[in-house]
Amino acid sequence: MDINALFTDEGLRAFTATVRDQHVRDAQQYGQIADIVRRRLEQTPIEGDRWMAKKLRAWKVSRQLKAMQKASGEAASKAEALYATYVNEVLELPQRRAVAEAKKLERKNGRQAAVGAAVAKSLDKTVTALNTPQEQAPGAVPQARPAEFVTPDNPWNQWPVAAGGEQAPTRSINDYFAKGEQG
């Protein structure tokens, strides 16, 4: 037997088929022998036997052959399982990994596209809001003039000095907010 042939699909298939067939034949023979031994022992009395002694003795001996039959049947199943596991874990693994990698890449690209679309939408809203005049913005309160908090000539004179300061404030609160209609 060439050991390298076991690492090919055809070689392992041939090996497992041979082993499976051998175990199936063995299981059939063990079952037939168990039936023959049980029938023969049930009909053969031994001196000093009691009422069910022949049947009990026949059952005990044939039970071992039935266990051998069951073990051979399980060995045949394990041979098929060996081939199926080899195909699943060795032969088909590269293909499954390639499919999984393609799906992963597709999900990643989908997430990136969704994030890109959300960023584009957000930027579009921001640009639209910044470029829209304030009078036309829906729900915005119109201002008579933009608020000026710092005068370009001397920013330090616009705020009052703390208690005990020498300078009185030159501006009032009304200078910072638009005056409502007086009528």
Identify the notable features of this structure and list them briefly.
62% helix, 3 helices, mainly alpha, single chain, 183 residues
Fold and architecture overview:
It is built from three helices and no strands. By secondary structure, it is mainly alpha-helical. It starts with 8 loop residues before the first helix and ends in a 52-residue tail after the last helix. The mean pLDDT is 81.
User: Could you tell me the radius of gyration in angstroms?
Assistant: 47 Å
What is the H/E string?
Answer: HHH
Strand pairing plus helix content: what structural class?
Answer: mainly alpha
Principal-axes geometry comes out as elongated
Q: Portion of residues in helices? A: 55-70%
Largest sheet: none
Mean pLDDT: 81
Number of strands: 0
Sum this structure up briefly:
The chain is mostly helical and 183 residues long. 62% of the residues lie in helices and 0% in strands.
SSE layout:
Layout: H1 9-43, H2 53-91, H3 93-131
Helix pairs in contact: 1-2
